[in-house]
Write a structure and sequence with these properties.
The structure is a single chain. The chain is mainly alpha-helical and 127 residues long. It has a domain of 42 residues. Helix content is 57%, strand content 0%. The chain contains seven helices and no strands. Helix 3 packs antiparallel against helix 7. The longest helix has 17 residues.
Length: 127
C-alpha cells in the first residue's frame, strides 16, 4: 500500500476491528439469557392462546373458525408429522384439561378468557 501511495496511485486502507468476531459464548448460556430477558416461549404461547380466544368468539361462518375446526382426511407423507399451530394448541389444550366445548364457552367471556390464558401461561403480569 505504501508503494502505491508513493507512486501517486489512489488506494483505500480499511482497518477492521476483528476482536469481537472471535469472542465466543456458550450456546446454552446464550439461550438462557435470551429466554430470561425476553421470555420468548411464554410470549409465543400467550399470543397463540389470545388468537385462539379471538377465533373462538367468531361467528360459525367465519373462515378462521372453519379452518380451526377442519379435520383433513387422508394420509400424509412418510416421516415426522409437521408441527402446526393446531397441533400445538391441541397438545396445550390436553395439558390444560379442557375440552373444545369448554374452551369455546370460556372464550365468550373475554375477562374469564384473559384469566385462563394468564393461568396456563404462568405469567402474573398478563393483561
Amino acid at each position: 500500500m505504501l508503494n502505491a501511495a508513493d507512486e501517486g496511485m489512489i488506494s483505500n486502507l480499511s482497518l477492521l476491528d476483528l476482536s469481537a468476531a472471535f469472542d465466543t459464548l456458550d450456546h446454552e448460556i446464550m439461550l438462557k439469557r435470551l429466554s430470561i430477558s425476553f421470555g420468548l416461549s411464554e410470549e409465543v404461547k400467550k399470543r397463540r392462546w389470545r388468537w385462539l380466544g379471538h377465533v373462538l368468539r367468531m361467528s360459525k361462518s367465519r373462515h378462521p373458525l372453519i379452518a380451526l375446526m377442519w379435520n383433513p382426511q387422508g394420509a400424509r407423507k412418510k416421516g415426522r408429522p409437521q408441527g402446526t399451530w393446531r397441533t400445538s394448541v391441541e397438545s396445550e389444550r390436553v395439558e390444560s384439561g379442557k375440552t373444545w366445548n369448554e374452551l369455546n364457552w370460556l372464550a365468550q367471556d373475554r375477562c374469564e378468557w384473559r384469566n385462563f390464558v394468564g393461568a396456563i401461561c404462568s405469567q402474573e403480569d398478563y393483561g
